[in-house]
Design brief:
This protein is mainly α. It is 74% helix and 0% strand. The radius of gyration is 21 Å and the shape is elongated.
């Protein structure tokens, strides 16, 4: 169990009971469950929060055919990436269930795995969160990219650069967006929903030749995320919104 929690204390007994219960009611052993609790503690979870989180990571491990330790790392790190960590044990349990459900749904509905999706989250999740995007929005974009063969860290880098280019465009990119009539921020300076922004950009490019279109996109986003941006533009608002709702 986590360092600093001594045998015989109430916290130790609660952790032991949780590990034994998981060991007797799931395909994972009590020892594997104890290891998962230790991983959660190393990620900053209290004993109470670790116990609240354990059923969720067990569900993720089962749904994705991962070992419990790997699922725990993915779940806890994803909470941090999307700024969903909290000291409220009940809310943390709900947040973790949300993370687990979205990750599992995306992995089973797109051409990606949980581990590939986690690589995308590590590279792109924090930037998307800072830009105001939800976990569900990021997952819909990552799943769409994965279906086009852009997955793992490549998808994460694509999304990171896409969000950065829209949230904080260079002077030249800002001029292009203004010329196209594409608004990226509200009156308070907050980034507008990226799906809506992509829809506005798509409409502004309608009717342009492929060379001119490519030059405009490169001027806004640079070379790195262009392939992924084209995939998202081709998917369209309806498909991205439907995926996000799902």
């Amino acid at each position: 169990f986590p360092e600093g929690i001594k045998r015989g204390t109430a916290a130790f007994q609660a952790l032991e009971n949780a590990a034994r219960k998981t060991g007797s009611t799931t395909e994972f052993t009590a020892s594997q469950s104890a290891e998962a609790l230790n991983f959660l503690a190393m990620a900053g979870f209290s004993a109470e929060n670790s116990i609240a989180a354990l059923p969720g990571v067990v569900d993720l491990a089962t749904a994705s055919a991962l070992d419990l330790g790997t699922a725990t790392d993915i779940a806890s790190d994803s909470l941090g990436a999307f700024n969903l960590m909290t000291k409220d044990s009940q809310q943390l349990g709900r947040n973790l269930q949300r993370v687990n459900d979205v990750i599992a749904k995306t992995a089973t509905s797109a051409n990606t795995s949980v581990t590939d999706l986690f690589e995308s989250i590590k590279d792109g999740g924090p930037v998307a969160t800072t830009a105001g995007a939800s976990l569900e929005t990021f997952a819909a974009l990552a799943g769409t990219l994965a279906n086009a063969g852009i997955k793992g860290s490549r998808a994460g880098t694509t999304l990171k650069n896409t969000f950065l280019s829209i949230a904080a465009p260079s002077n030249s990119a800002a001029k292009i967006l203004k010329r196209l009539g594409v608004q990226t921020q509200d009156a308070d300076g907050n980034m507008l929903d990226i799906v809506d922004t992509l829809d506005s950009l798509n409409k502004s490019l309608d009717g342009l030749g492929t060379a001119e279109r490519s030059a405009i996109l490169e001027g806004i986003f640079g070379k790195i995320p262009i392939a992924g941006v084209n995939v998202l533009l081709a998917a369209g608002t309806d498909q991205l919104n439907e995926y996000r709702r799902a």
